[in-house]
Design goal:
- By secondary structure, this protein is α/β, with parallel strands linked by helices.
- It has a domain of 224 residues: 3-Layer(aba) Sandwich (Rossmann fold), CATH 3.40.50.
- The chain is built from twelve helices and 13 strands.
- A seven-stranded parallel beta sheet has the order 3-2-1-4-5-6-11, with helices on both faces.
- The longest helix is centred in the N-terminal third of the chain and has 21 residues.
- It is globular, with a radius of gyration of 19 Å.
- The termini are far apart.
- The mean pLDDT is 96.
- Bound molecules: nicotinamide-adenine-dinucleotide.
- Nicotinamide-adenine-dinucleotide binds next to helix 1, strand 2, helix 6, strand 5 and strand 7.
C-alpha cells in the first residue's frame, strides 16, 4: 500500500504505454498531473507515439513523461527502472493480445503475458511497490449465461490461450493480494475498446491483418481492404450478428485515472468492468462507420468463427458508484474518431 499522494507526487510506471490503450492512458495521466514512466519493448508499437503524445499534452506536461525501451520480463532492466524512478504505482498493459495468433503460438503468449507479469510483480515486491492496475478483459466471462455481465458473473472457460493468460494473471494477482495484505490490486475488465484520441494524432495501429472488427472496418473505409467479413448472421440477436459492448478508448483511458485515484491509500483486490452497458451488433457498427466516413462500406457474410460468443455487454454500476467513472462517448463518436485517425494516418505510425 502506498501512502495517499496527490497526482503530481505520484510516479506511475505504465508497462506497454506505447500501445493503443497505453498511449491514450498516458495522455490522460499527463493531463491529470501524474509523473509517467513508460516501459515498452515496441514489439507492437512505434516510438513515434511519444512525439504524438507530447503534441497532444504540450511540452510542459510532456516533461513529466519518460520512456525506457525494455522487455518487462527483463529483470535487470526493470530493476534499473525502479532504481532510477520513485515508482508508486504500476499500470500493466504490456502483453500480446491477438486472439487468433495466441492459438497458433500458445508458448509465446503464456511466456510473454504471464512471464512478464511474474517478473514485474516480483520486482515491485522487492522495491516495496505493491499497487497495481491490470488490463484484464471481458473474455474471462466466456460465453455468458446472463446479461449484462456484473463483476460477480462467473468466470468461465476461455476459448483461446490469450483469454487464459488474462484469466490466470487475474488469479495470480488475487492470490498475491491474499498472501500479502499490503498489496493493492485493481483488475479492470475491458469490454471492446475502439476509437481514437479526438486529435487524430494517436490511435490503433495493428500490424498485419487486423484481428478486431473496428480496425478492419477502418482499413476498408480507407481503401486498404476490399470489404468487411462478418462472421455469422445466424446468432440469436436482433439482426443475427454478434453483439459487443464497444467503449471509446479515451473513456477507457479515463477509467484508469479514476482507478488510480480510487485506489489511493487502499489495500486488497477489486474488480471493475469498464464498458458502456450497451450492446451494438456488427452490422450496426458497419452502418455507423459508413455514416462517419461518408460512404457505404461493403461487407460479406461468412461462417461463424469458432470461439466467438453471441453477445456480451457490461453492467458498469460498480465503477460508477465506487470510482465515479462512467463512459460518456457513444458509437457515433467512436466511429468519427476512429475515422479521423485512420484517414489522417492511413499507414498508422508509418512503420
Ligand atoms: N485492445 C483490446 O481489445 C483489449 C481488450 C481487453 C484487454 N486488452 C489488454 O489491454 C492491454 C493493452 O492492449 P492494447 O490494445 O493497447 O495492445 P497493444 O499491443 O497496442 O499494447 C501492448 C503494448 O505492450 C508492448 N509489449 C508487449 N509485450 C511486452 C513486454 N514483454 N515488455 C514490454 N512491452 C511489451 C507492446 O509493444 C505494445 O506497445 C493488453 O494487455 C491487452 O491484452 C486489450
Amino acid at each position: 500500500m502506498s501512502l495517499e499522494k496527490t497526482p503530481s507526487e505520484t510516479c506511475v510506471l505504465v508497462t506497454g504505454g506505447a500501445g493503443f490503450i497505453g498511449s491514450h492512458t498516458v495522455v490522460e495521466l499527463l493531463e491529470g498531473g501524474y509523473q509517467v514512466v513508460i516501459v515498452d519493448d515496441l514489439s507492437n508499437a512505434s516510438e513515434k507515439v511519444l512525439d504524438r503524445i507530447a503534441q497532444i499534452v504540450g511540452d510542459e506536461a510532456a516533461e513529466r513523461m519518460s520512456f525506457i525501451r525494455a522487455d518487462v520480463a527483463d529483470r535487470d532492466a526493470l530493476e534499473a527502472v525502479f532504481e532510477s524512478f520513485p515508482i508508486d504505482r504500476v499500470i500493466h498493459f504490456a502483453g500480446f493480445k491477438a486472439v487468433g495468433e495466441s492459438v497458433a503460438k500458445p508458448i509465446e503468449y503464456y511466456g510473454n503475458n504471464i512471464g512478464n507479469t511474474i517478473a514485474l510483480i516480483d520486482t515491485m515486491r522487492a522495491y516495496g511497490c505493491k499497487d497495481i492496475i491490470f488490463s484484464s478483459s471481458a473474455t474471462v466471462y466466456g460465453d455468458p449465461d446472463a446479461l449484462p455481465l456484473t463483476e460477480q458473473s462467473p468466470k468461465k472457460f476461455c476459448t483461446n490461450p490469450y483469454g487464459w493468460t488474462k484469466w490466470m494473471i487475474e488469479q495470480i494477482l488475487m492470490d498475491t493480494a491474499t498472501a500479502d495484505p499490503e498489496w493493492n490490486v485493481v483488475l479492470l475488465r475491458y469490454f471492446n475498446p475502439i476509437g481514437a484520441h479526438e486529435s487524430g494524432l494517436i490511435g490503433e495501429d495493428p500490424k498485419g491483418i487486423p484481428n478486431n472488427l473496428l480496425p478492419y472496418v477502418a482499413q476498408v473505409a480507407v481503401g486498404k481492404r476490399d470489404c468487411v467479413h462478418v462472421f455469422g448472421n445466424d446468432y440469436d440477436t436482433p439482426d443475427g450478428t454478434g453483439v459487443r459492448d464497444y467503449i471509446h478508448v479515451v473513456d477507457l483511458a479515463a477509467g484508469h485515472v479514476s482507478a488510480l485515484a480510487w485506489m489511493n491509500g487502499r489495500t486488497g483486490c477489486e474488480i471493475f468492468n469498464l464498458g458502456t452497458g450497451t450492446g451494438t451488433s456488427v452490422l450496426e457498427i458497419i452502418k455507423a462507420f459508413s455514416e462517419a466516413c461518408g460512404r457505404e462500406l461493403p461487407y460479406v457474410i461468412e461462417a461463424r468463427r469458432p470461439g466467438d460468443v453471441t453477445a456480451n455487454w457490461a453492467d458498469c454500476t460498480k465503477a460508477r458508484e465506487l470510482m465515479g467513472w462512467e463512459a460518456t462517448r457513444g458509437i457515433a463518436e467512436m466511429c468519427r474518431d476512429s475515422w479521423n485517425w485512420q484517414s489522417h494516418n492511413p499507414d498508422g505510425y508509418g512503420e
